[in-house]
Design goal:
about 550 residues; 8-stranded mixed beta sheet
Amino acid sequence: MEPLIRRVVDIHARRVFPAEVDIVDGRIQSVRPLDATTPVAPGVLLPGFVDAHVHVESSMLPPAEFARVAVRHGTVATVSDPHEIANVLGEAGLDFMLEEAARACMPIHFGVPSCVPATGFETAGASLDSIAVARLLEADRLGYLAEMMNWPGVLHEDPEVVAKIAAAKRLGKPIDGHAPGLRGEDAVRYAAAGITTDHECFSLEEARDKAKAGMKILIREGSAARNIDAIWPILAEFPHLAMFSTDDAHPDDLLKGHLDRVVARCVARGIDVFDVLRAACLHPVEHYGLDVGLLREGDRADFILVDDLVDFRVRRTWIAGDLVAEDGICTVPGAAVATPNVFREARFEPTDFELEADRPSTRVRVIEAEDGELVTGSSIATLAAKDGRLEPDVAQDVLLITVCNRYAPAPPAVAFVRGFGLRRGAIASSVAHDSHQVIAVGTSPSSVAEAVNAVFERRGGLVAIDGERTTALPLPIAGLMSDRPAEEVAAGYEAVSGIARDLGSTLRAPFMTLSFMALLVIPSLKISDQGLFDGEAFAFTPVRVPPSNGTT
């Protein structure tokens, strides 16, 4: 390719200078500084962005299609944990992701999922024990031990957890963390066990504690959890420890932007541009030992062209010297993809979602969903009985929530939730972190049954039920991803989300919130296929509150 004459960002020397960049056989042959008076073309060349922790499956796109969207926004690599598909398909799911990533236009660096299943209180489609994890870590194509969500197991030295961490240490591979709310001495002990990163910081104080313990802090800004506003000062206080993560990025958000938007927001807050770019470009490459170029002589030619260092509007993206995106369009065509899946045949009746009542009214525990948050609250509501069954109370926004086992025959778990705001109908999804059973919220047993059955009939997807109308986004790849182009998937996601809002939901992303109601490793009150779960006590808890002091 022809030499590029532009202003160039050197994030090591923290400077911007005019230069001529020569690229030969996919590598940077030279970066020759020019006199300050030399005319250069508009824009600035800089190393591309690296997402330090993202679950590709959450985009509802397979790896190659995910890459086609990410490169438009200047992303040249990701560090990705495939534990979503591993919970469904096990090692076959990992093989699928690796094979798909091999033909992507952008490097996707996968790790070995450390928690499949995430806890012992749910039923996953597969299991990866310490022996399997150790064997998988031996593979060069799996570069790290992915997020260790079982932080109680780390602190209490659970033998399986210890064995997984020891295997990664023995091979010199990084170990990612996941410890929401962990602070003080517990954070120190967690880090001392060998955990090197954390992306679950909900407060600045928590992030500071973990940084002081020596952990790299991944500032997360995704479709589900958004923590920039809470912890952005970490970039200034611990610039050498900061990286960026989207964690879970839904297709509609991904089409609008990726780390380009995150970088621009941080610079707009007054953070030094080089501290921001080091977090976005340099630190993930160094921490994970990635073969990703940093715009230096001899590096692989991975870099981007932006208009300026304020808005970071990405004009072009090169990977290994190939122009893969220009002016918001990926230059690499999409391709057909396989659709591996697992779904048992099942049909549910409204009676499957009814809870018996032995008195006129009953106090029940209620999951309190929070808009844009992974954490939930817990409350108590009093529900009336009708014909010996507990009735959801739409006026109180106390709705039915259920998790149905898609892997093996079992009765559904049923409880109550507040925060979704549905006035009628139901919504359901086969995306339910982390075991990805079928989860649904609705205003009546009949609407819930209809929504759940619609997901089973399609072998995965998102569904909204409004009377006789069913709106669905099919997800035929493990019940997690679509085989359609990104724009089509985003439109389908927006359509089904729009119906959820028509049903009354005031949540910004109803299906994203729904998907985390089964994530037991993040408190407070959640639900799995086995029942209602207290994330603080890390134990099951009954839906009904036992009567006391003569009350009903």
